[in-house]
Design goal:
six-stranded mixed β-sheet; globular; twelve-stranded mixed β-sheet
Length: 1253
Amino acid sequence: MEIALSDLNYTATKWDIKRALAKVLHQPPFHYPESHKARPINFEVILNDGPGSLPNDGTAVLVLPDRAFGERFFKWAICPNNRVRVCGRKVWLERQEKRPPNWRIEVLHKTPFLDPMLEAEREEILDRVKRLDIILDAIQFGVYYRREDDLPSAHRRFSNEYEIRRADTFSGRLCLDYTRRILRIEMGNSVTEDTSTHIAIDVSNIRKIGYGVNQAARQYYVCLDLYNPARFEHYEMYRSYGKEKRDHKGFRERLTSLDGAHESIKQFAYQMRLVLNEASSSALKELCQEAGITRPAKIQVDVQNCGFFRPETMEAVREWIENFDLPVAFQLEALLYNGLANTGDLWDLRADIEALYEEDRMFTADVLRHFHEKLASKARGETKHRNEGVVACFKSTVEADRAGSLEDEDTDRQEDESTELRGNSSAIKCYHVVVTPTRILLEGPFDTQSNRVVRKYCEYRDYFVRLAFREEDRMNFKWPDKHGRAPIKERFIDVLKNGVRIAGRLYRFLGYSNSGLREHTAWFMADFAHPDEGLVTPDRIRADLGDFHKVIHIPSKYAARIAQAFSGTDPSVRITRDQWERMEDLGTHPYEHTDGQGTISPGLRDKIWDELVKAQPDKAKLTLKPSAIQMRFLGFKGIVVVDERLKGVCMRLRPSMDKFQARDESEAEIEIAKAFVYPGTARLCRPLIMVLEDLGVRKEAFLALQNQAMCTVVTAIDTVDSAVALLRKHDLGHHFGLRWVLQHLGARGMGMPKEGAQRVVDDPFMLRLVRCAQSHILREIKHEARIPIPNAHQLVGVADEGPAWAKEEGAENVFCLKKGEIFACIQQPDSDECEYIKGQVSISRSPHIHPGDVQRVKAIGKPPDGKLCFFRNLRNVVVLPSVGERSLASCLAGGDVDGDEFLVIKDETLLPTHGVEPAEYVGVEPRKLDSPSTVDDICDFFLEYMQSDVVGLVADQHLKIADQSREGTFDESCMKLAQLCSQAVDYPKNGVPVDLENMPRPVIHIKPDWKKVTSRSSATQDWLAQRNPTQRLTLRYAQQGEDNDPRPGDYYESSRALGELFRNFTFDMKPIVPPPSSYPNGTPEPPSGERPLSDSISRTLHGAIAHHLGQFANADKDVGALEPLFRYYAEELRYVCATHALSDRTDARLCEEEVVVGTILAKSADARWRKERMYRMRVHAGQLVRHMKQVRLRAPQGKDGDAEELVGALRRAWLAWDYGMRNRGVFGASSFSMIALGVVLEMLEKLDKMYQD
């Protein structure tokens, strides 16, 4: 409906009118905020142009999307006492018969009301930014460097390796893309040229910025110190239009280099220096202010052309590097490729490196690895020797590593490697390669989950590398639209099909796992000669995996079958052909009830569990064994569930698990992907909250859960028991044994400061660990709506085998689940108590994108006695019925029972008030080829997948549209996105991508407020600035992809439950501000001056230690003898912190507390990237802890060890605890003592039990 407005003040703006109308329309009687799903009505105001520069001519039109609402407002507004006032003046209203355009009504229906003040402020800023334009005479790419004879106080120099300077016109212009937060250099003349090349520099990518004056030329210049290379884009000056007058969007092309000359140096020289065609710096300062960059400082940087990366120089360096063994050659190339050293630096180091290599090759590789990390720290300005020369830095690294070398270093290294060489390790040391549009980055080696192939050839593991395709900042690549991808595709496909040369070896594509495909990561390998098999090549390995003739014409399925061999798994037991058999599936295609499920005997389950316990001794403390195991075996994949009727060693597998025919079935290993021993923590999430709200769950239910969760987290530090429960529930601190340590200290009578215990856990490091865990959980609650649900569980789904029992001869009186029924029994692995879930529950499965993905079912509770029941003794799984035409799993986001996990909620306040039919989730026909697939076809598919990997994008668009639309998730666009999400999830199997051109998008680009991401606390930022004042300018945009400083008009206030939850989170915890010593290269704290072993934990253990060791105090010389061991540990921990940080920024460095807890507190717009880094960090840190316990401290594992071995390990660990506590002001000492304390408590427990027995 349209309503004419007249008698307006001529100076009134659109925003003045909207603000005045909102005061009326968004209050009773037109809007009641407390009602369910209430949202203020959106409306539009259209001004009629005024004379001259005045905003209006006294008239305007109000557009309302609902006629009934408009009539009600009009009747109210024409009453004398209800007149609307704008800028203090009464406005006349007149009803219009003209109907607004349908598109405008739809926009108003589907978009929320935005604050006029924010819109006005944003418009003003955009208008101001448009006028900022800086002309450039030259654009230079190079590197900053120091000469060995430069004074530490001298400015760095700039080597100009590539320059753009045009004689016919200016070289470019520098401007600000305010919306995208990009400094953009536009090259090209819009008058004489049709195309333009842009250099795009994210504001967050600028480490430092400064300007200077070339007095001889009287020109200003700008120096940009970047974290990563800029992006290069090719634009058409004027967009072309087709016959239908539709704007062709293919006008931007992402480039990998600017031209041939730039191609040769782009890998190494990406720092920038801009020569201005300006006589002052005022425009630059204004540009920086609008961009949010601190005012640039005046500097003096000399420029030279050193030719560090000329082709002939690079060829000579490569020839020299290839003379070394791979561990050393890889580290040398990493220094060069990662931008930490130039060729001049390497020549300066040549003699020292060659001498060290002759002395000890493996030691040289370790030194170079630590040298790499030290140079990276220098580049970030973290060390007090940041102006130290490269040669001096190398020599100090050698000296530090020699001091940290142990007498039995070679023996320990051989013992550690022997586990890998036997092929029974769940992790291997692996080199990593990252390919970006302009660079190849080298990382590692560090511990990575092993798989079937690399375990078989573990002796040749350095012939295998993990290669990932990434954006310049190492995050997932952001593809341009399909018309602008050609240069990127050419670069990536060249690597996939032709391989990449690293340290003299050509690594070629081998394969990938399904999770690796989602992460855009693949395994590459170099050919090697095997004493028994001859020449081993990628083709040879793939051919030996099995027979893939059934899917050979479908590249996506062919690749998915090969991917099974590269799934990250743990080794377990081997079985022979007579110990496993086949059986039929239950149900009909495509909705089999047992899709992906087999069965296993209790005896074989026990053997598998024993093998897992050997590799992970902490599991020996558990009394419960898993009821279901996700595995890979020959060509089979899925889960196997314990069937108590099977005797001995027996496994039964189904056709739905059989993916390809293995070459040799006589004997094979059962590879374990996951053993489901724990019940998963149930949490809400954004998509689920959005769907539940549309199914009738009230906002108050979510808010109550959030308040309860916040209270639980905040008070967790009050008692030892609550801290242990929090860590267990969220699986934090596991690898360092934090939960176990606290639990044992509590059992010995210790308590938190608020408990009033006689002995208080007052260790500052332990308290910081708990607060770090609290911060991790609270961030998830606020920014991801991951709210724990007390009366709910996350469980792996299994099918009821009862119908199969009933079909077998002699099986009578079998109890089976009926349609709409489930069974679940929950038991903590370290407890004998169990809980049967009974009554009405909801069951769902991620991604929770369709309203039908949540279904109400009946949990039967304890099965009846006197009947045969397959699932009677199953624990921590949810059993689904095997009756009916369609499986329950397939109704829940198209799931199955090959390892899918389901959320079971008992909380009545979260149960849907009405049901919705589940989506069909019928898969599309896979794309087939006329000829058999080749490895090139797999590579083509891998690249296509990277371009079409849009699951996250589809889910994100779905959430935003559901938030903006009155229909929520029932909006037709959301329903279409639900179908597209299913198609995107199945894309790896069927090879049919989502068509992004036709994907629904939000009507407005402004985001709901719950999309905001807040930065670290201001206290943390202040501390970081004190550590390195030169980093102050980037603290505002310190974390890539974050919106740390929301700007006017970027967000609107969401009226949905997600918005209420986001704004409800007002609790302000004390900021986690670790001391400088918690960070690599941080300043050590001064010694405390306390008497050794006078802390509360040591005093609590006094009696037990004295009893078993015959003494309590340690001799100073014995404690001091552990310094080399500590130095070794600290260097490796420093490497963990440097390797797995989200970015190279100073404030994104990992601290000691984060590694111990197993979290990364720095935020990232790419949640998948952050989770991947956290997982890699946990694996790496976990292997370091295992090495320290088993190899360095020689602690017997599991039930192994006699009294002498236990006492010996106790003595070594007690010395290590003492050393760590005496030096706790040094980086690494606190976690070093934590590892030692865990061994002390474990040995005491074993000794006490031994003497009791």
